[in-house]
C-alpha cells in the first residue's frame, strides 16, 4: 500500500513548484513574493529527496541484493521521453509565436537540424522543463546507488556521495572548465554531481524507513523537531543575510547559494528545512491526515509527474496572458488560484483514467 505521508510530502513539493514558478513573474511585487518564494525554496530538493526515499523503500521491500536495474533504467527512459515531449510542444509553440520561452536563444538564430540536435543531446533545455533531465540521470545511475548501498551500507553510500559533492563544489570554484568535463547534465539548471547527494540521502532514509515503528518514530520526531527548528532559523538567517548582502552575480553568492552546483549554505538551509518538514509530518501525521488540504496534497503527490508537466504549460500560458492583458497585482493571484484548480482537476482525471475498478499502484 502507498504511504500517504510520502505522497503528502511529494504533493507539497509539486504544488510548491507550481506556486513558486507563477510568483516569479514580475507583475507580483517583491515585498509579497520574496517571503513566499524563499519559504518554498525547498521544493526541488524535496522532490529529489522524496524520490530517493521511494527508491530506498523499494530496495528494502525486495529480496536482499535485488537491484531491479531494469525497473530504474526503464524509468529513466520514460522520464527522458516525457522531457522530449514537453520540449517538443514548447519548441513548436515558440516556433509558431504562441509562447515565449525565457532564457532560450531565438529560433531564428539556428538551423532546425542544429537546434534539434541540441535538444536531443540535452545541450539546450528550456526554462522550467529542465528538472526532468536531472531525474533522467538520477534514475539512470540508481542501480549504482543501490549496488553501493548493498556493498558498503548506508554510511558508505552517504560518505561516497558527500565526497563527490565536495569534489564538485571544489572543482566548480577552482577549475570550472575542468569541472564541466565530468559533470552530468552540465547544460541543465540542475547538475547530477551535487544533487546526487540529496538523492542518495533519500535512498538511505528510505532503506531504513521500515525499521521505525510509527508510534516510536512519532515520539522521537516530536522530541527532535524543536532543536531542528532552531538550527534551521540560524541557518535561514545566514542564508538571507548572504542573499540580501551580495548581488546574484557576485562570486560569493554563486558559490554559497547557487543550485548549479548546490552551494553549501543553500544545501544546509534547505536540508534543515526538509528535516523540519519531514519530522513535522512524522510527528503529527495523525492530526494532519483528516484535514481536506492534507488529503488534497496526498492526491497531488500520487500524480506528481502529471501535475508537474501540466503546471509547466499552464505557467507559460498564464504568464503570457498576464503580460498580454497587463494584469496587475493582486488580480494576478487569480491566475495562481486557477492553475491550482486546473491541476487538481487534472490529477483527478489521471486518477480515474486507468479504470474505475483498479487500485492505485503501490509506492514506490
Question: How does this model look, in words?
Answer:
The protein has 364 residues and is mainly α. It has 2 domains: 170 residues, no CATH class; 166 residues, no CATH class. The chain is 73% helix and 0% strand. It contains 15 helices and no strands. α4 packs antiparallel against α6, α7 runs antiparallel to α9 and α13 packs across α15.
Main sheet summary: none
- Share of residues in helices: over 70%
- Structural class by SSE content: mainly alpha
The tally of structural domains comes to: 2
Report the average pLDDT across residues: 89
Terminus-to-terminus distance: 9 Å
| Tally of helical segments | 15
Number of strands: 0
The outline comes out as globular
Calculate Rg over CA atoms: 21 Å
Q: Helix-strand pattern, N to C?
A: HHHHHHHHHHHHHHH
List the helices and strands and how they pair.
Layout: H1 4-23, H2 30-39, H3 43-61, H4 69-95, H5 112-120, H6 131-140, H7 142-174, H8 176-181, H9 192-207, H10 214-245, H11 251-257, H12 264-288, H13 292-302, H14 304-325, H15 333-352
Helix pairs in contact: 1-3, 1-13, 1-14, 1-15, 3-9, 4-6, 7-9, 10-12, 13-15, 14-15
Amino acid at each position: 500500500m502507498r504511504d500517504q505521508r510520502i505522497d503528502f510530502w511529494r504533493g507539497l513539493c509539486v504544488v510548491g513548484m507550481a506556486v513558486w514558478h507563477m510568483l516569479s513573474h514580475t507583475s507580483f511585487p517583491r515585498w509579497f513574493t520574496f517571503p513566499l518564494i524563499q519559504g518554498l525554496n525547498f521544493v526541488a530538493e524535496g522532490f529529489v529527496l522524496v524520490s530517493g526515499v521511494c527508491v530506498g523503500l523499494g530496495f528494502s521491500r525486495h529480496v536482499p541484493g535485488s537491484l531491479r536495474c531494469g525497473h530504474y533504467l526503464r524509468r529513466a527512459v520514460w522520464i527522458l521521453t516525457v522531457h522530449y515531449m514537453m520540449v517538443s510542444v514548447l519548441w513548436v509553440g515558440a516556433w509558431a509565436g504562441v509562447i515565449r520561452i525565457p532564457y532560450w536563444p531565438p529560433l531564428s538564430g539556428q538551423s532546425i537540424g542544429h537546434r534539434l540536435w541540441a535538444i536531443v543531446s540535452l545541450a539546450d533545455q528550456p526554462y522550467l522543463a529542465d528538472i526532468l533531465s536531472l531525474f533522467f540521470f538520477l534514475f539512470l545511475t540508481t542501480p549504482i546507488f543501490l549496488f553501493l548501498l548493498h556493498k558498503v551500507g548506508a554510511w558508505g553510500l552517504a560518505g561516497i556521495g558527500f565526497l563527490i559533492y565536495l569534489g564538485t563544489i571544489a572543482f566548480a570554484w577552482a577549475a570550472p572548465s575542468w569541472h564541466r568535463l565530468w559533470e552530468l547534465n552540465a547544460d541543465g539548471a540542475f547538475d547530477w554531481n551535487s544533487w546526487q547527494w540529496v538523492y542518495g540521502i533519500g535512498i538511505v532514509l528510505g532503506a531504513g524507513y521500515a525499521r521505525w515503528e510509527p508510534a516510536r518514530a512519532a515520539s522521537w520526531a516530536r522530541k527532535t523537531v524543536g532543536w531542528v527548528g532552531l538550527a534551521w532559523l540560524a541557518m535561514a538567517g545566514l542564508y538571507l543575510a548572504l542573499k540580501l548582502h551580495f548581488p546574484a552575480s557576485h562570486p560569493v553568492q554563486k558559490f554559497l547559494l547557487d543550485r548549479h552546483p548546490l552551494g553549501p549554505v543553500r544545501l544546509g538551509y534547505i536540508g534543515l528545512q526538509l528535516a523540519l518538514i519531514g519530522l513535522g509530518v512524522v510527528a503529527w501525521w495523525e492530526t494532519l491526515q483528516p484535514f481536506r488540504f492534507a488529503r488534497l496534497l496526498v492526491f497531488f503527490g500520487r500524480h506528481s509527474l502529471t501535475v508537474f508537466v501540466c503546471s509547466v504549460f499552464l505557467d507559460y500560458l498564464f504568464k503570457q496572458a498576464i503580460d498580454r492583458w497587463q494584469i496587475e497585482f493582486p488580480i494576478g493571484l487569480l491566475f495562481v488560484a486557477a492553475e491550482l484548480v486546473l491541476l487538481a482537476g487534472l490529477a483527478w482525471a489521471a486518477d480515474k483514467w486507468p479504470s474505475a475498478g483498479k487500485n492505485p499502484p503501490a509506492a514506490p
